[in-house]
Amino acid sequence: MISMAYDIARISMTPLMRPAFEAGIAFTRLDERIDRSPVGTGFLERTQFTDASASLWIDGGLVHLEDLVLHDATRDIRTPTHELTISRDVLRTRRRIAAQLPGWALSADGIRSLRKTSEIGSGGGDEATTAGVVRPAVAIDAEGEGEDVDHSENLPGLDYAAIDAVLARSEAAIENAGRPCRGGGQDKDPMIYDLDWDEDARLDEWRGVLRQAQELPAVLQAIVALEAWNELSVLQHSPWLGRLFSAAILRQAGITSGAHLAAINLGLKTIPVDRRRHRDRETRLLAIAHGMIAAAEIGLKEHDRLALARTMFERKLGGRRTSSKLPELVELVMAKPLVSAGMVAKALEVTPQAARRIVFELGLREMTGRGRFRAWGVL
After folding, report:
1. What's this model's pTM, rounded to 2 decimal places?
2. Which of 76, 183, 266, 326 stands 20 to 30 A from 226 (CA)?
3. Which of 369, 330, 352, 305 is nearest to 50 (CA)?
4. Which of 188, 254, 187 minimizes the C-alpha distance to 222?
5. How much is the average pLDDT of 156-167?
6. 376 near 364, Cβ under 8 Å?
């Protein structure tokens, strides 16, 4: 059996000190700005979506931001893909970590819980699909926005018996994939899992790395923890969980606070893949450090952009009636990267036609470039 020993004593910390220090300063500046900002809460909610989408990009998948937003709002315009359900699991996990106490994610209970969720999610862990039920895409409306109506029942030309059979098989596969593995992997489907892949041993090895690194500065701990997670390939189907653990280390140490979970995926997305997966360990560590710096800088720019947009929107609210829905729409678009007519109608409790009218009144930008199933966002 090949040893998986990961010894941090062999890592030269000197080249990492400066970028780690810069990353810590940048994250602290961003956290302070968020804490004092009127758009701070909306910024954090938007970051959940953009970072979850970037996570799939890093792992070689592609999830459009608009699809993730609509999927989260249960306003899908097409059947969710496997990549989209994984991205939704990343989103849910980010929210779960941010909602807990800072030390929960890295505790024994937190790791066990998040690992279980990620294993189920690798087979489609959305609360809808986990139960063996796939939310249908909303039927197309020939007269306008397809998401404004729901004619998903009694659609002509569909073999519902065949669909039920597929759902039953999917439910059985998901249940089998999520069953705990004991004694070297029996009970796992060999078509899905490598039965020689001892995740428990790899996880113990990774936690040992965390213990070795606990005396290092927080940012260095996060960098080493993420590189070790990637090197050890702890979980077969959930490489994204290591990046969230790295962000949780920063939060536990107070580099970020409250519900602020660093958007490490966004930063790593800017780093060329040949650096992130280089054969030399020092190059990989520096790539993670520079990715963290980029994440904080992207966050600062995005925050300032949102703050400016909110100021411009507030100028349009002057002289409006107290019953106007525009203030509520401003709050919604500050919290979501994209909004659709259906999302606006549901949140503001208006008709889809009224939703489109007030969207145009506020002057939002159409982001999809399509004639139907459109979505709008901040300029």
Report:
1. 0.79
2. 183
3. 305
4. 254
5. 65
6. yes
